Amino acid sequence: MTTLALISAFPPARNSLNEYGFHLAKAFARRDDIHRIVVIADKMDGVKAEVYLDPKIEVQRVWDFNSLKASRDILRALKAVDPDYALFNLQTASFGDREIPAALGLFAPSLSQRAKIPTGVIMHNLIDAVDLSQTNLAGKGFRQKLVSFAGTLINKVLLKSGYMSVTLDSFLDILREKYKADNAFLVPHGSFNCEDPADIPPLVNRANSIVTMGKFGTYKKLDRMISAVQRLNSNQYGHNPIRLVIGGSDHPATPGYIDSLKAKHAADPNIVFHGYVAEEDVPGFFKQGRVAVFDYDSTTGSSGVLHQAATFGTTPIYPLMGDFVDVTEREGLSGFNYIPLDEDHLMQTIDKALSMSEKAQEIADNNLSISKGLSMDVIAAMHLGLLERVSQHRFFALRHSTKRTLWLRPRM
Prior knowledge:
With 412 residues, the protein is an alpha/beta fold. The protein folds into 2 domains: 3-190 and 375-397, 3-Layer(aba) Sandwich (Rossmann fold); 197-372, Glycogen Phosphorylase B (Rossmann fold). It is 38% helix and 17% strand. Strand 9, helix 8 (257-264) and strand 10 form a beta-alpha-beta unit.
């Protein structure tokens, strides 16, 4: 009887990576060799019904966002569960949007490993790879240095777990070169829902709509995108205006950002603020759009939203920068590209993607095919293989390709 503890934000709570934790738990539940999955999750505001997934899955709401005691609470829960393996699904702000609680929470994986629980970490971003001048720390030189120092310390602590996986080549380079890490691996992000292509409407049957989703206000902004759509509607799409549907909420560091845009564009019926997109609404959200636009000032890791767009046959438009280049080259995803921070070029690229219907459909079909090959079932098999080798002390016998992608034969 194999018990896996998955430590992750989890819906219906709305903290970052809750969707990833949701789909990873479902993938593990589909495995015959996993008999119990205990999700050690973040607490929710108010009383909400838990999402029923599978009789194998039990959700324990253990830690509070921005709590100084998250690591302690998680370790207590792990000891009570006594799992065969523990897998942490994390990013740098998983445990808080304030520096001290965020950092202290990230000590939990190493404490789990010290408690003799074979422990792995999926780390979706690294402070070392973030341009802090493009975040809410812009203009705060001392705090940038402090955060950078803390990021280095935290990575050293995370690497004291059984293994640490990242989703981008550039992140692996940092862990291998800066930290000399032998227990760091590249495991792809993976795709969430792999639907029957018959259930995915072709682009020509969709409304003239753009979708975008995220936590906005820091390096993910909406101003350029809204302006580009409004200019297109004024200049050439008046007969069939483009509808921009915005899903998501404010970034914790920029409260009020979405409300300010709502007020500013209240008179424009083609700018729609959907708000938070619940897990059950994600398929319909993406399948309403011909294209999904990603307008970022900088990047901080592999985009889960990009993978969701690919999964539902929605053609992505993204800037040729950093992690977008890395993940698309690694996984083979593609889209229409534009010059970062350039509103005119973004506008031209949106027009191109909407008018070149055959090319857009070709891209969407290619991304959908790739998504099927990188399903969460494949990703779960890779992580289970790593966890088994940690428990058997055969960790360094793992094989790698020349491109350093982790290759494991999935257990059937």
